[in-house]
Amino acid sequence: MTEPALTVDQKIHRPGIVLLTVAGELDHHTAPELAQALQKVPFAPGSALVINLSGLTYCDSTGITVLVTTYHRAEAAGCSLSLAGLSRELTRIFHIIGLDQVFSVHPTADDALATLSHGEQ
Questions:
Q1: How far apart are CA 28 and CA 25, in angstroms?
Q2: Looking at residue 110, which CATH number applies to its domain?
Q3: Residue 80, domain member (yes or no)
């Protein structure tokens, strides 16, 4: 049996804006990989992070915990955090537990980046 795979790709969209693309299965086996990648992201006042989740095939409560922890870190640093590309299932879960009221959620990473480009962090 193979271990679940998760890929995390970080790109500097432009100075102060980081795009993190996450694909695969985000669960208790792979969440530490995402958490480690997020530790490398510079959180600073006025900066922004967009996490593109369109490539996720699965996300359990451990993955959601990593996202919530990242939200708290971003808030404390004065950094804008947006999530993009949530699947229908993940959108439903976020709605049920109220995280759609906490996170800035966009249909695509391009939509999230366009919002940041217009200064609507």
A1: 10
A2: 3.30.750.24
A3: yes
**How many degrees, rounded to 5, is the angle at CA 53 between CA 108 and CA 90?**
100
- Burial class (CB within 10 angstroms; exposed 0-12, middle 13-18, buried 19+) of 27: middle
- Structurally, how many domains does the chain consist of? 1
Is residue 4 scored above 80 in pLDDT? no
pLDDT at position 84 over 90? yes
**Domain residue limits at 93:** 6-117
Assigned domain for 102 exists: yes
Q: What are the structure tokens assigned to 6, written together? A: 């998760």
Say yes or no to pLDDT of 65 above 80: yes
Looking at the DSSP bridge assignments, the partners of residue 11 are 19
